[in-house]
Each structure stands twice: as structure tokens, then as C-alpha cells.
Design brief:
two-stranded antiparallel ribbon; 6-stranded parallel sheet; 2 domains; about 45% helix; binds 5,6-dihydroxy-NADP; about 10% strand; 15 helices; Dehydroquinate synthase-like, alpha domain; Rossmann fold; binds zinc ion; alpha/beta
């Protein structure tokens, strides 16, 4: 195991009817900005519950944070914070609202051009406003980690940032809040969480026993929960398990002391920024093709994955690896996520655009070992074509 520094200060308040706890979780005397997305938080009654719980606080609201949140939108929230002298942020929504709020928390106190936060991936953040969250969609893990992804719309750049100052102080996870999530977004969440684990697990073997077994347990849970949530969308236990699994998939535990990949996410971000494909859908396009092309460098871990996650114990090694990759693709497809670029009408020209954006963003040595060069990214996307 490599040396690691595991730090996670986020308090999780989990379960039915927990939004009322905001009254005690948000510090007395705080001047609060509630941030939310489009219309869902209002329609589902979540905002009304938040307003009621915060009746004793000074509260302003900022709505309209779009999926794959835009820098340009978020800077308007920063202006509101400055003019109204607000000092506590409450994000109400999914990954986009939470990520966007993390960016706002840092940008509100940043000296200089806030775009530099993205350019330096958050390494230049020196202070941030405190942030709490009310999660409404199980997917990203943003509710219990210190990272985010924000799009600079003007340049079609979707860039990740992270800083320990951006961990939420608390996150409220009421699984009932996810009953209203559209089927497509539910499926996206299952696949996003799956790929988060894969990016921290499918690298090299023999690094950490607990993290490996934990990762395998999370992957198996997602394979089990995906069809269940599709068949029984109003089953509380299924939603509760899915919500907690998605949080655990990216709260640092699985990734502590082990090698990471993340090339699927970085290639995926370019696909979203250029062609507005949902985040998880880009991952479903890239991962199977990437595993297939990198089967030699990932050989030992792919065999472990085949054996422990998909119970493939028989036959030649190459065949087991092939089957494990096919089953992964099949799982994404069964969840309703296409795995071929042609499903989006994209071909050679799109691939070249992605490759040149990766180059422009300095994403030229991705993955464990830095093997994923722009040329390999091109081959991966070509393999994902049809
Ligand atoms: O905008 P509204 O009207 O609220 O609708 C949202 C949005 O259209 C809707 N929704 C959310 N909760 C709902 C609901 N609809 C009905 N009922 C509810 N309870 O769902 C749509 C998608 O929301 P979004 O927040 O975009 O989805 P998700 O949670 O999948 O977040 C995706 C974003 O997170 C980033 C992605 O890149 C993407 O920008 N990620 C963040 C990560 C992190 N911080 O660690 C890691 C991930 O890799 C991911 O990259
Ligand atoms: Zn993701």
C-alpha cells in the first residue's frame, strides 16, 4: 500500500425525513445562500422543506445551476454573495449543484480571476465559504468529497478541481428525495458510481486487500441494485442502498493508498463539453473500449475483476478477460446507456475534436502509468465507434 492521508470531515445525516435537521446543522446566525438547479427542487417540494427548516435564518436563493454547471452561471451567485454579504452555502440538488456550489464557495473568497481556480485545478484555493448539502440524486459522491467539475462554456472546457477546503460540512441524504429522479438520470447514477469504483480499482493488483474487497463489494452491489431500482423505483431500501453505495464509491475510502486511473473520466469530460452527452453516458462509451485496448497493461487486475466480480473462474485467461469486459458493456446497455459513438451520430470528426481538446487541456499522459496519450485516446474512441 502507498502512503496516504485520508481526511474526510463531512458529516452524513442519512435517512427518512432528515431535511428538518437543517435547523440545527446550519450555524445559528449564518447568512445562508440556498443554491439549486432547474425546476426539480421546487416541483418536488424539497425547497419548501428547506425553507421551512431554515425559517430562523437569513436566507437568499440562487436557482438555475444547469447540469454540468457553467462557470458563467456560478459567477452570478458569487456576485449575489458579495452584495448580500452571505456567509454559508447550502446546495440542494445532484452533483451539478453541489459541484457548482463548491466552486462558488471558493470563488467568493478568491483574490484575482476565479477562472484561475479551474486552470490550476483548485490548488490555488486558500479559503472557502462553509458549505452544506441536501442531496437529491444518487450518483457522483460529491456530497462527501472535496472535488468538483465546472464547465467554462465560452471555451467548451469542462475542468476538474479539488481542495480539502471544499469538503461539505454536512450532507443530508434522504433516499425518499430520489424517488422523483427521472429513469434516465437514475441509470446514469448507477453507471457513474460503477465507473468511479472502476477508476480506482481496475489498475494494478496487490496494493491493498481491504480497498480491493471493498471496491468489489461496491461493484457487485451496483450490479445488483441497478435492475432493482429500474423494476421497483419506489422501493425505499433499494434507493437507500443505492444512495449510500454511490457516496462510498467516491469518498476516498476505495482509493486510499492505491493507484488510480481516471482516464475514462477525462476523455468523457471532453465528450460532454463538445457534444453535451450526459456525464455517465460518456463513461459508458469510453470504459469498455478502454479496458479492451489496455487489456495487457491491466491484465492481472482484469483477471481479478473477472473472477471476483463476475464469477468467471473457467477457461483461458484471455477469454475470461474478454467476457468480463463484455459483461461490463452489457450491464451499461441493460441500464439503458449506449456504449457506441454511432448511437450519438458521432464519427471520425468528433474523435479528432476530442483528441485536440485533450491536448489543449494538457491531458496527454492519462491513466495509471501515463499510458493514455492522445494517440491511445484516439484508438479507444475509434474502438467505441460502432
Ligand atoms: O436541474 P434540476 O431541475 O434540479 O434537474 C436535475 C437535472 O436535470 C435532475 N434532478 C436532480 N435531482 C432530482 C432531479 N429530478 C427530479 N427529482 C430529483 N430529486 O437531474 C438532472 C441531472 O442532475 P445533475 O446534478 O447534473 O446529475 P448528477 O448528480 O449525475 O451530476 C453530474 C455532474 O457531476 C459531475 C459530472 O461531471 C456532472 O457535471 N461529477 C462530479 C464528481 C465529484 N464532484 O466528485 C464526480 C463525478 O465523476 C462527476 O464527474
Ligand atoms: Zn463520474
Amino acid at each position: 500500500m502507498q502512503n496516504f492521508d485520508y481526511y474526510n470531515p463531512t458529516r452524513i445525516v442519512f435517512g427518512r425525513d432528515t431535511i428538518g435537521r437543517l435547523a440545527e446543522l446550519v450555524p445559528a446566525g449564518a447568512r445562508v445562500l440556498v443554491l439549486y438547479g432547474g425546476s426539480s427542487a421546487e416541483k418536488t417540494g424539497t425547497l419548501a422543506q428547506v425553507r421551512e427548516a431554515l425559517a430562523g435564518h437569513v436566507v437568499q436563493e440562487f436557482g438555475g445551476i444547469e447540469p454540468n454547471p457553467h462557470f458563467e452561471t456560478l459567477m452570478r451567485a458569487v456576485d449575489l454573495i458579495k452584495t448580500q454579504q452571505l456567509d454559508f452555502l447550502l446546495a440542494v440538488g445532484g452533483g451539478s449543484v453541489i459541484d457548482g456550489s463548491k466552486f462558488v464557495a471558493a470563488a467568493a473568497l478568491f483574490e484575482g480571476d476565479a477562472l484561475d481556480i479551474l486552470k490550476q485545478r483548485g490548488g490555488n484555493i486558500r479559503q472557502a465559504l462553509p458549505l452544506g448539502t441536501v442531496l437529491t440524486l444518487a450518483a457522483t459522491g460529491s456530497e462527501m468529497n472535496s472535488g468538483g467539475v465546472v464547465t467554462h462554456a465560452a471555451t467548451h472546457a469542462k475542468l476538474p478541481f479539488r481542495n480539502p477546503l471544499l469538503f461539505p460540512r454536512f450532507s443530508i441524504l434522504d433516499p425518499q428525495k430520489t424517488f422523483t429522479v427521472p429513469e434516465r438520470q437514475v441509470a446514469n447514477g448507477v453507471v457513474d458510481a460503477f465507473v468511479h469504483v472502476a477508476e480506482q480499482y481496475l489498475t494494478v493488483p496487490g496494493q491493498a486487500l481491504a480497498q480491493d474487497r471493498f471496491a468489489e463489494g461496491l461493484l457487485q452491489s451496483l450490479i445488483e441494485l441497478g435492475p432493482q431500482v429500474q423494476a421497483n423505483p419506489l422501493d425505499y431500501e433499494v434507493r437507500a442502498n443505492l444512495m449510500w453505495v454511490a457516496t462510498l464509491a467516491l469518498n476516498g475510502i476505495v482509493g486510499a493508498g492505491v493507484t488510480h486511473d481516471w482516464s475514462t473520466h477525462m476523455i468523457g469530460h471532453e465528450l460532454t463539453a463538445l457534444f453535451e452527452i450526459d456525464h455517465a453516458r460518456t463513461l459508458a462509451l469510453v470504459l469498455p473500449a478502454s479496458l479492451s485496448l489496455r487489456r495487457d497493461s491491466k491484465r492481472a487486475k482484469l483477471l481479478q475483476y473477472a473472477e471476483r466480480v463476475w464469477q468467471l473462474h473457467e477457461g483461458p485467461e484471455a477469454q475470461r478477460i474478454e467476457q468480463a469486459i463484455a459483461l461490463t458493456r452489457d450491464f451499461f446497455e441493460r441500464m439503458g446507456l449506449p456504449t457506441r459513438l454511432s448511437d450519438y451520430g458521432l464519427g471520425e470528426e468528433a474523435i479528432e475534436q476530442v483528441v485536440s481538446q485533450l491536448q489543449a487541456h494538457g491531458m496527454t499522459r492519462l491513466g495509471e502509468g501515463g499510458h493514455v496519450t492522445p494517440d491511445l485516446a484516439r484508438q479507444i474512441l475509434q474502438a467505441a465507434r460502432v
